[in-house]
Design brief:
The complex is a heterodimer of chains A (about 450) and B (about 325). With about 450 residues, chain A is an alpha/beta fold. Chain A has 14 helices and 22 strands. In chain A, about 30% of the residues lie in helices and about 25% in strands. Chain B has twelve helices and eight strands. In chain B, α1 packs antiparallel against α2, α1 runs parallel beside α12 and α2 crosses α9. The chains are: A alpha/beta (about 450), B alpha/beta (about 325). The complex binds thiamine diphosphate and magnesium ion (MG).
Chain lengths: ~450, ~325
């Protein structure tokens, strides 16, 4: 039986073999630790799948970037004759039952950092380094906590565990347990607590392990955080940031895969931000922490590892409410944000092959919305495609298309086409999940439709 | 030496419970391997180490009773008697999965086996379980709803609301707190104020006790006590199980928040090994019989694996079905 490099997390694609704990010829039992593997998030132990003898070690310790599922050792299983189709043996046959996923989105690892690195969003000469969105968010929090003693961080597993997705790594060590707090699994309680603390002048950063769990606390977010300033006639403001991963990660099913853009942008009193890359993430998170209003800061798990050039200076900020044109063209306008920007970029080469060069607008802020940027582009291109991961029914994209048609009616040369997540709870199966989200084919056919290339 | 403490089960029945525990262990080991091989995706929370809880409770259940639990549900649905091949095919996201591949590891259900999920949001299953009890009482049925809840989930507000409702309305529900000492990376003493978790139910007038959840016989006796209390008094009951998960929270958790010594100490108290020893010594079940059970389960797991990998992906049109009836 081949022992393969295991996938130890939903997003792991390769790993490093840190150390072998067994030797060739050694007898092992099911469950014995064979090796230490380093993943994108942690160092994990590889257990023996069965009783047997380590016949051969294929991959030496110290090897890096080994693709998931490649053989790293051979285990001769005691006595039993092996099933030809064992899941641990990669063979043509078993992978045939595998999916024919519309070959794109599953690999979100396509590096598009070059696109974001070429953006000049401001004219200052920053000293920049290439870091991941995970690191950029971490820097933003650390810098603002350094600058302002009233900023503190709370959430599940943010402190001792370094964050469920490692965004808050090292912050406990740096700022101590007074300012970095692990909460119990009590979202409604700790959200209300954070809002109360904000009313008293502190500036909490409230992490939801994922935004799915913000639903436990949505009453406090809407009824207490969003409305207090207005209800109090301007007396009580709530300077708070709610942040965490939003949208569909990978195969985590119906209750853990939903996009809250449309939900929260519906609410007067909330600011909603959704960056697509590391640079924007840092600049926007810093602006959000300094903002005197409640901010919903929507990250995306699949983008945490995406890298781009990010300024190291304390005063690097990206203003809330400013969109970013990441590709300039004249044939049509494609609008997205967060993950959907990456879906658009994956479709871009094919769109260009159609002889079309689009304006691609990364909204970055959903509320307030950079209407000027959008309308200017639409008045130039006269055609619009909107891509959103969330459900299309009564969605933010629907509202956006309403805004565009009422502000640019005379400039439109075709209907506006919206590509949204399908109107179903997120299925678990690989093939269905890929189809539930906007696919590259759908984006391309939307582009063809608005340009009459069908 | 352990005493023979339960006379109410025949040796055949005890062997059946042993088989169940062993099945859950081997099933979960295989699930872990298939996850590593990329055949299972997303989150996958294994039940290894906690088998005595679900099996001990099983020994007190009537087939008409209902059960509901969290996302750590593979062992629970197996305990309810669903064929493991349909459970594994759900994990691999295939057509023959118990939820047709649409639910995944955290979302499995079987009405035929009175298993109501399979819930991914911490704490959500607790009021749902109280609702199942409400329906039993409403219809005048002699059924008990059994609700499993984690130690971490015990800090979720709706759990307290559910306790209050269950007691206020005298509903036939047994709450089983699976205190495996950690909610993800957070040890109970870092998340829960107060002394014992089950006391959070007793303040609402619910009778309860704490049990060694690593021992089938102790769990079974407590479960029977609890059942009889519910039958006689038409009131809820709570059992807190002191138990342990051997693996990380999910497949991607390296579990560095606890020491190797701690894990090894808990493993030395293994529920399956200790049951096996008792069956040999106190019940004079012979070793061949036990070995046979194990060999058969290992064989079955190979078939289960094969089935789960050969079953096709769901049809594309399944994407849009079953959103509404
Ligand atoms: C409302 C909510 N918050 C957070 C999570 C993420 N989460 C999943 S499991 C878990 C820990 C639960 O621990 P416990 O109740 O002890 O159950 P165990 O995993 O130990 O079985 C957390 C925080 C969630 N699923 N739902
Ligand atoms: Mg627990």
């Amino acid at each position: 039986m081949n022992i393969l490099l295991p996938a130890l997390s939903p997003t792991m694609e390769q790993g490093n073999l840190v150390k072998w704990l067994v030797k060739e010829g050694q007898q092992v039992n099911s469950g014995d630790i064979l090796a230490e593997i380093e993943t994108d998030k942690a160092t994990m132990e590889l257990e023996s799948p069965d009783d047997g003898i380590i016949q051969k070690i294929i991959v030496e310790e110290g090897s890096e970037n080994i693709p998931v599922n490649s053989p790293i050792a051979i285990l001769k299983v005691d006595g039993e004759d092996e099933l030809p189709n064992s899941g641990l043996v990669v063979n043509e046959k078993s992978s045939e039952a595998e999916v024919n996923i519309p070959n794109d989105i599953q690999s979100t690892s396509v590096s598009i950092s070059s696109i974001f690195n070429n953006q000049v969003t401001d004219d200052k000469n920053w000293s920049e380094k290439e870091i991941s969105m995970r690191e950029a968010l971490n820097e933003a929090i650390a810098e603002e906590m350094d600058l302002d003693k009233d900023v503190f961080l709370l959430g599940e597993e943010v402190a001792e565990y370094d964050g469920a997705y490692k965004v808050t790594q090292g912050l406990l060590d740096k700022f101590g347990s007074k300012r970095v707090l692990d909460t119990p699994i009590s979202e409604h309680g700790f959200t209300g607590l954070a809002i109360g603390a904000a009313m008293a002048g502190l500036k909490p950063i409230c992490e939801f392990m994922t935004f799915n769990f913000s639903m436990q606390a949505i009453d406090q977010i809407i009824n207490s955080a969003a409305k207090s300033l207005y209800m109090s006639g301007g007396e009580i403001n709530v300077p708070i940031v709610f942040r965490g991963p939003n949208g569909a990660a990978a195969r985590v099913g119906a209750q853990h895969s939903q996009c809250f853009i449309s939900w929260y942008s519906h609410i007067p009193g909330l600011i909603v931000v959704a960056p697509s890359n590391a640079r924007d993430a840092k600049g926007l998170l810093k602006s959000s922490i300094r903002n005197p209003n409640p901010v919903i800061f929507l990250e995306h798990e699949l983008l945490y590892k995406e890298k781009s050039n990010v300024p190291s200076e304390n005063d690097f900020l990206i203003p809330i409410g400013k969109a970013n044109i990441i590709n300039e063209g004249s044939d049509l306008t494609i609008i997205g944000f967060s993950m959907s920007i990456h879906r658009i970029l994956l479709a871009l080469p094919e769109i260009q092959q159609l002889g079309l060069n689009p304006d691609i607008i990364d909204l970055r802020s959903i509320k307030p919305l950079d209407e000027e940027c959008i309308y200017q582009s639409v008045k130039k291109t006269n055609r619009v495609v909107i891509v959103e991961d969330g459900w299309g029914n009564t969605s933010f994209g629907s509202h956006l298309s309403y805004l565009i048609q009422s502000n640019c009616f005379d400039y439109l040369d075709s209907e506006i086409v919206k590509v949204s997540g399908k109107d179903v709870p997120m299925p678990y199966a690989e093939n269905l999940e890929a189809l539930a989200l906007p696919t590259r084919e759908e984006i391309i056919s939307a582009v063809k439709k608005v340009t009459y290339k069908n | 030496m352990a005493k023979k403490i339960s006379n109410s089960f025949t040796n055949k029945e005890l062997l059946g419970f042993y088989e169940k525990m062993f099945l859950i262990r081997k099933f979960e080991e295989k699930a872990g391997q298939l996850y590593g091989a990329g055949k299972i995706g997303g989150f996958c929370h294994l039940y290894i180490g906690q088998e005595a809880v679900v099996t001990g409770i099983l020994s007190s259940i009537q087939s008409e009773d209902t059960v509901v639990t969290s996302y750590r549900d593979h062992g629970h649905i197996l305990a309810r008697g669903v064929d493991p091949k349909f459970v594994m095919a759900e994990l691999t996201g295939r057509k023959d999965g118990i939820s047709k591949g649409k639910g995944g590891s955290m979302h499995m259900f079987s009405k035929a086996n009175r298993f109501y999920g399979g819930h991914g949001i911490v704490g959500a299953q607790v009021p749902i379980g109280v609702g199942l009890a409400f329906a039993h009482k409403y219809r005048g049925e002699k059924k008990i709803s059994r609700v499993y809840v984690g130690d971490g989930a015990m800090n979720n507000g709706q759990v307290f609301e559910a306790f209050n409702l269950a007691s206020l309305w005298n509903l036939p529900v047994l709450f089983i707190i699976e205190n495996n000492r950690y909610g993800m990376g957070t040890a109970v003493n870092r998340s829960a104020a107060g002394k014992e978790l089950y006391e959070r139910a007793t303040v609402f007038g619910i009778k309860g006790e704490k049990i060694n959840g690593m021992d089938f016989f102790e769990v079974s006796q407590a479960a029977i006590r609890a059942r009889d209390h519910i039958y006689e008094n038409s009131k809820p009951y709570v059992l807190e199980m002191d138990t342990y998960r051997y693996r990380g929270h999910s497949m991607s958790d390296p579990a560095t928040y606890r020491s190797k010594d701690e894990v090894n100490e808990m493993k030395s108290n293994d529920p399956i090994l200790s049951m096996k020893n008792k069956l040999l010594k106190d019940y004079k079940i012979n070793e061949d019989e036990l070995n046979n059970v194990e060999i058969n389960i290992k064989k079955q797991i190979k078939e289960v694996e094969k089935f789960s990998l050969e079953s096709p992906l769901p049809e594309i049109n399944e994407l849009f079905t079953e959103v509404y009836l």
